[in-house]
Design goal:
Length: 480
RNA sequence: CCGGGUGUAGCGCAGUUGGUAGCGCGCUUGCUUUGGGAGCAAGAUGCCGGGAGUUCGAGUCUCCCCACUCGGACCA
């Protein structure tokens, strides 16, 4: 038994021994990703891409319910266009990949491969927005973007990654601010209800906000190693870009106005978050609502008369009920299959062999807690539905426990330093609002401000760093 | 970008003072098996990360690249 066990885990490094290596092992062994010949350019393998497709499908429906329309803009941005907004270009130009040749001819102006598309959307909006009747414009784009990162890791930091970017224009500041918060809420709900991940909603400090934005909002997640992952962002731009790009509309008052703008996005980085939130030493653990395979059916003693047919019948019933189901009737032994689909994080395993057939039952095993039960084949559709919901809830509760147990209030910088060194996680402190204190926190403790949470608590009256009167409570952590 | 480690069969690795490459798993075929990574037998698989150099001869020595990996810096 001990020998068998060691054989199972030998494929993946223990997360307690080396979390980073565990993560890399899972990405490769679960066949989510492969490397290409260019640093930071990853291949999304079918199983990894299928997770993204499920995320995409669900989020896209949510966006459309709220009136957003999908568009597709060019991949290349002329340098002159990128430069129209000063803060924006300062932030992004250093990490742009540039196209300088067209065929064999040098280009007169170099083109950036889009690292984000605010400028392209603005150029287009300038052409199509003329009247208050043209507003709001609620556009979204699914695409890949390129940012020339110095270091890269699967899902967490790619030079090319997949994302969606919503870009909206509104007649009033109020409407745009509402949109910014609404979309952050869409992300937060998605994390909780689909990915089974709790988030901390809040606003970024000026130091951490998006280049060119007036306000950046974020959902922050805590990984299993207690480091922070920014799960999604929503920006309020005011009319800054609109002024820079000379976008105007005639209002009801017959005067020219600049519209107010937002953008918001999530990326394939989410998949990294899923892995590091739910995974364990046997590999990936996928939340049921985005799992490419929700139920893996494993026939036992499949050479025996009628076993395959009985398994196929169950598969067909579950498919008809709307579940994503796969049966593995390959020549591998059942034990091999158990380990394989555990590594791939399939939420529910269904075993059906001759003994079960006699009793009109099957075996169900939950991936999240290993719980095994014998269940009657009558009503298997309902049983599976309940089990998948229970797994979702179980995963969420466990992740929430991790977040809550590792978030603590600190009164002083020294206390933050001490707690961070011993257990990591999120430290909550009061803050004066001064960037100098953020820099000090980074230099002396190694943490950055994750956000100013919407749910504020009054932990004290003074800044944990400098002792001056406090303006906000801030959450600090080490970020991916 | 800075520092440490690593690139040899699909995966994990060995390869001695430089002499032309091996092991385990996997893979293929056949038979036997099948409720936690099965057994036996017979097979197939290599531009030794890439490029220059030293040498009669380089997986091995020298230099330059590239990639992976772990830290750090930077970064949405």
């Amino acid at each position: 038994m001990a020998q068998e066990k060691s054989k199972q885990v030998s494929q993946i490094t223990d997360m307690e021994a080396d979390f980073a290596q565990w993560y890399t092992d899972v990405c490769r062994k679960a066949e989510l990703i492969d490397y290409s010949s260019i640093k930071g350019m990853f291949i999304y393998r079918p199983y990894g891409y299928a997770i993204w497709e499920n995320i995409q499908r669900i989020l896209d429906d949510e966006f459309k319910k709220l009136g957003h329309e999908n568009v597709y803009l060019p991949t290349l941005i002329p340098e002159s266009l990128l430069q129209k907004e000063k803060d924006h270009v300062e932030g992004f130009a250093p990490e742009c990949a540039w196209v300088t040749m067209g065929g064999s001819e040098p280009l007169e102006e170099r083109y950036a491969i889009h690292p984000t598309s605010e400028t392209l959307f603005c150029e287009h909006y300038q052409n199509i927005i003329h009247s208050h009747r043209d507003l709001p414009k609620l556009y979204n784009q699914w695409c890949s973007v390129i940012r020339w990162e110095k270091t890269s890791r699967p899902f967490l930091r790619h030079r090319e990654f997949l994302w969606q970017e919503g870009h909206t224009m509104h007649a009033t500041e109020e409407e745009a601010r509402e949109e910014t918060e609404r979309m952050l809420g869409v992300y937060a709900d998605f994390y909780e209800n689909v990915l089974a991940m709790p988030v901390v909603k809040g606003r970024k400090t000026d130091k951490e906000k998006f280049n060119g934005a007036e306000e950046t909002y974020t959902v922050e997640c805590m990984m299993h190693d207690r480091k922070a992952l920014q799960g999604g962002t929503s920006h309020y731009f005011g009319d800054g870009f609109a002024r820079a790009f000379d976008i105007t509309f005639a209002g009801r008052d017959n005067q020219l106005h600049h519209p107010y703008q937002t953008s918001w996005g999530v990326s394939t980085r989410m998949i990294g978050g899923i892995i590091m939130t739910h995974g364990d030493n046997s590999g990936l653990v996928l939340p049921p609502r985005i799992a490419p395979i929700q139920v893996i059916i494993i026939p036992v003693a499949q050479h025996k008369e009628g076993v395959i047919q009985a398994n196929e019948a169950v598969m067909e019933r579950l498919r008809k009920a709307g579940f994503r189901v796969k049966m593995d009737a390959s020549d591998n032994t059942p034990g091999w299959k158990f380990a394989e689909y555990e590594m791939k994080g399939v939420p529910l395993r269904l075993e059906l062999g001759p003994k079960d057939m006699e009793k009109n039952q099957c075996v169900l095993v939950r991936r999240d807690n290993g719980e095994k039960s014998f269940v009657c084949l009558d009503g298997i559709e309902d049983t599976v539905a309940r089990a998948l919901d229970a797994i979702h809830d179980g995963l969420y509760q466990r992740a929430k426990g991790n977040l809550e147990e590792n978030t603590y209030a600190c009164a002083t910088l020294e206390e933050v330093k001490e707690k961070m060194a011993s257990r990591g996680g999120f430290a909550k402190t009061m803050w004066c609002g001064d960037e100098a204190c953020e820099i000090r926190m980074k230099e002396e403790v190694g943490v950055t401000s994750r956000c100013i949470p919407f749910e504020q608590e009054r932990l004290g009256d003074t800044c944990a760093c400098c002792g001056k009167p406090a303006k906000h409570m801030v959450v600090w952590g080490v970020a991916y």
